[in-house]
Amino acid sequence: MQINGNKQTFYSPRCGRANKNYRRETCLDVTIPDDHLAGCDIYPEADSHKRTVLRPEGAGVPDTDFLLYLHVQATDKCRAEPSVLAYAVHCQTDSHGRPVAGVVVICRDRLTGATYSHQTTVQTVIHELFHALGFSKDLFSTWRDCYSSSSSQVGADCSPRGKVTHSDRSGHMRIYTPSIISALQKHLVSSDPQLGGPLENLVLVSSHWESRVLQGSIMSAVLGDPSTVRIDPVTLAALQDTGWYTVDLSRAQSLVWGDGEGAMFGSLSTCQDNSSSFFCTGSGRGCHFLHLHKGECQTDQFLEGCRVYKPLQNGSECWKKESSRWTAEDELSGEIFGFDSRCFLSSLSPQVCVCNQSQVPRVSSSVEGRCYRHRCTGPNRYQIQVSGSEWVDCPAGGNIQCYTTEMGKLDLYFHKSVFIFVKCDFDY
């Protein structure tokens, strides 16, 4: 198959005969229109110019760099893998290796029902589109080196990169290209030259980032709640380093996960030693790292034993007013839900003790994720408000005394790690 993109036709040696079973060109069960294809002729006699036209030259799609076929269908893969929302593949590359067409299949049954999310579907299509554009183990070998080229152009004028994936000193497979290395060094605040882009290591070479290092990236193996997913700088750097695109890196969304944590962040040797508050141990409840949700300490197959706070299934969104159940427990914990609320690790417990014949909340020695209002007062400075209290400054690692109309003076203790990540210059 040759896709006639930009009205270019790519020729191959002459064919003497056609497969008698040939009917059409397909890609992931999508039939490619004949009008998008180069012509196909056969020459029954080797030394003759006589030919039989099997398919006339297609008009192609003018002024098109990449053609995406979007297919909504209940396929065998959709039925076999209920967790799959969509999948993709590139269908064709040009003579220089640039992807010119791809297919994204969306599982039709996932577009209905109570669990359907428009934002999740959009992010999933973006994820699959990035695969077809070049972020794929099947396309890593086509990436071009435009840094060492004398030409300022991208694509065909640049030299092939060759192999871009290599194992680091621990045996982890990474992508080593200039923009990726620079983006990851900047993100982790490290000059370690081994900081190539880490790939998921459940297979030898993966088409996804390692979840322990780049949790929340649009190109991690599993996309979480839509509010937690980012089109991050490392992913855009990868698209830049394909050599096929000029990427506006300033449009990247900041990735909070692992910010400033150093070269060893996300390694199996450090994720369980309490050296980073991005990870957790046990199975208790806390806050998702973006502090938009309450979370529970969990692991999955991609974390390989490391544990993180994952958003609770129901009613975990602090920023949604409807998440509040308005129970007695909520009232005693001082929680407030709404667009300006975030999750804080609080030691204010909903347990009740009897003191001088009155009921008051008990301050516990343990901490748990609670939703309170917050507002910014300057760069990385903010105040919080507990139900019934005034706004108070939120000092890192300290405690706050709140006076509530219902219960008088309360001492609220906040876990110091929360102040590292709930920043007033956030963009979420």
Summarize the structure.
The protein has 6 helices and 21 strands. With 428 residues, it is an alpha+beta fold.
Structure description:
The protein is of the alpha+beta class. The chain has helices at 76-80, 118-133, 178-188, 233-241, 328-333, 418-421; strands at residues 26-27, 30-31, 40-42, 52-55, 67-73, 86-93, 99-107, 144-145, 159-160, 165-167, 173-175, 197-198, 285-287, 294-298, 308-311, 341-355, 358-378, 381-385, 392-393, 399-404, 408-413. It folds into three domains: 26-133, no CATH class; 137-267, Leishmanolysin , domain 2 (Leishmanolysin, domain 2), CATH 3.90.132.10; 321-421, no CATH class. It is built from six helices and 21 strands. It starts with 25 loop residues before the first strand and ends in a 7-residue tail after the last helix. The relative contact order is 0.07. Mean pLDDT is 83; it is low at 5-11, 350-363 and 406-428.
